[in-house]
Write a structure and sequence with these properties.
Layout (H helix, E strand, L loop, with lengths): L3 H15 L4 E6 L5 E2 L13 E7 L2 E6 L3 E6 L4 E6 L4 E5 L14 E7 L4 E6 L5 E6 L2 H8 L13 H8 L7 H6 L9 H11 L12 H26 L34 E5 L2 E5 L17
Helix pairs in contact: 1-6, 3-6, 5-6
This protein binds a DNA duplex (14 and 14 nucleotides) through loops.
Length: about 300
DNA sequence: TTCAATGTTTAGAC
DNA sequence: GGTCTAAACATTGA
């Protein structure tokens, strides 16, 4: 699913592609998750795109008339902008991002006066699009009750260290995915970061040494940086006919690699249910206790 | 038919 | 009463 790196990439691309464009019309076939609130399409017509930004995994398109379009891609959402010259896409890779639009997964279509279109596609319909006023209070209300934590890419190591130590009883993977702790990490990057740091996902914060916590922080930033680089190169390739591959997940070392050899030691990556999610990790590199296991690991 | 996928929320347990 | 967890939710393809 799209997490912070994917969202960052699409936000950057959209900023280049649609900033300054004027909205002409909006179409949608899917009311339940498309909230106009007390507003109507008329409120958006003629307004100009001022800025595209994000808060955690939430994408925010600010308009010149004091309104904003707030989008969450959730599990299978994707955003595709296309006009006569360029195509910019990002999000979940199914259906392929180079598939012609609109298609069967297209839920909302924003048309601009330059004849370009921004498509919100979502195969599984877990995502949502909301229209709200641009002030922070309204946007916060649109996003939900969860107070988003700091952005992991804009955080310092010290800040991370201080913050994490306030939750000694929490399990590390669970905490990393808690959006109020840090915004933007989901199942993929918590697995990746912990694999990089060689930390078992079930370790409690209290059991972690400072250097281990620092390694986790580095793991988060490194995997994000790598993903943004990869995603950026694919999403920025302007396509006509020839689709971008979508390097999504091709760099993963742990996530969805069950049964595949660990890139470090060759041990098979295992998948284990915990805290309602499946965690992927290397049972040799990432051990639960610091002590050497009494039993031989095969 | 059941399961799995996700972030967020709610109901329930302690 | 607050904190933590397990389950529910919305939806569809495999």
């Amino acid at each position: 699913m799209p997490e912070l790196p994917e969202v960052t990439v699409i936000v950057n691309s959209l900023n280049k592609a649609i900033r300054g464009l004027v909205l002409e019309s909006v179409e949608y076939d899917w009311k339940p998750k498309f909230y106009w609130g007390k507003f109507s399409i008329k409120d958006l017509k003629g307004s100009k795109v001022k800025d595209v930004r994000r808060q955690g995994k939430v994408i925010i398109i600010d308009l010149s008339n004091g309104m904003s379009i707030v989008i969450h891609l959730k599990l299978t959402g994707q955003l595709i902008y296309q006009d006569k010259k360029i195509r910019v896409s990002g999000g979940h890779p199914i259906p392929p991002l180079n598939k012609p639009v609109p298609n069967s997964t297209t839920r909302v279509t924003f048309a601009f006066t330059n004849e370009g279109h921004l498509y919100f596609n979502d195969m599984r319909k877990f995502g949502w699009v909301k229209i709200t006023k641009s002030d922070e209070a309204s946007i916060k209300e649109a996003i939900g009750k969860v107070e988003l934590g700091p952005d992991p890419m804009e955080m310092t190591e010290t800040e991370f260290l201080d913050r994490i130590k306030k939750k000694p009883q929490q399990r590390i993977k669970k905490l990393l995915m808690d959006q109020s702790f840090v915004a933007g990490i989901g199942n993929i990057y918590s697995d990746e970061a912990l694999w990089r740091a060689k930390i078992h996902p079930k370790r409690s914060i209290a059991s972690l040494s400072d250097s281990e916590i620092k390694a986790i922080f580095k793991g988060i930033q490194d995997s994000f940086k790598l993903a943004i680089e990869k995603g950026g190169s694919s999403a920025n390739s302007f396509v006509d006919g020839r689709g971008e591959k979508g390097l999504y997940l091709t760099f993963a070392k742990a996530y969805h690699m069950t049964g595949k050899p660990c890139a470090r030691c060759g041990t098979k990556i295992v998948r284990q249910k915990m805290d309602g999610r499946s965690a992927h990790f290397c049972p040799k590199c990432q051990v639960l206790t610091k002590e050497k296991p009494a039993l031989k690991l095969i």
